[in-house]
């Protein structure tokens, strides 16, 4: 039986949450809760809502579109390709990893610009009144 904690999330629990989101994908709370021995499914879902509200880009980066999971797969494929001397395959994996990194960076940059525009608009409204 699971011993459920009702205190603030520890850094270890948060790390387990991040890893489980990468492994199972955002929104699969039952599977994620099984990876965190001190939290139930409802606590995991509540924590995810708070994480997404605080840092909306994390939802995208932690499994919504499976980009990080693909990065982990590519890391393993790359090591196998290098060890077996498949340089062409390793180069192709390098290009795909770079594309995924650029994708993640563009998502974060778009969010950054959106936040800045929102702040500028709100400050203009305050000046107007």
From TrEMBL:
<feature type="domain" description="Myb-like">
    <location>
        <begin position="8"/>
        <end position="52"/>
    </location>
</feature>
<dbReference type="InterPro" id="IPR009057">
    <property type="entry name" value="Homeodomain-like_sf"/>
</dbReference>
<protein>
    <submittedName>
        <fullName>Uncharacterized protein</fullName>
    </submittedName>
</protein>
<feature type="domain" description="SANT">
    <location>
        <begin position="4"/>
        <end position="56"/>
    </location>
</feature>
<dbReference type="Pfam" id="PF00249">
    <property type="entry name" value="Myb_DNA-binding"/>
</dbReference>
<feature type="domain" description="HTH myb-type">
    <location>
        <begin position="1"/>
        <end position="56"/>
    </location>
</feature>
<dbReference type="InterPro" id="IPR017930">
    <property type="entry name" value="Myb_dom"/>
</dbReference>
<dbReference type="InterPro" id="IPR017884">
    <property type="entry name" value="SANT_dom"/>
</dbReference>
<dbReference type="InterPro" id="IPR001005">
    <property type="entry name" value="SANT/Myb"/>
</dbReference>
């Amino acid at each position: 039986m699971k011993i459920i904690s009702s205190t603030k999330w520890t850094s270890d629990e948060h790390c387990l949450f991040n890893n489980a989101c990468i492994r199972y994908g955002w929104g699969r709370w039952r599977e994620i809760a099984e990876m965190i021995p001190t939290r139930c499914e409802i606590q995991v879902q509540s924590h995810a809502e708070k994480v997404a509200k605080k840092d909306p880009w994390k939802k995208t980066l932690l499994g919504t579109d499976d980009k990080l999971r693909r990065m982990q797969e590519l890391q393993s494929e790359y090591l196998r390709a290098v060890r077996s001397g498949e340089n062409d395959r390793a180069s192709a994996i390098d290009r795909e990893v770079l594309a995924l990194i650029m994708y993640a960076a563009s998502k974060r940059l778009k969010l950054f610009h959106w936040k800045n525009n929102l702040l500028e608009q709100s400050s203009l409204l305050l000046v107007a009144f």
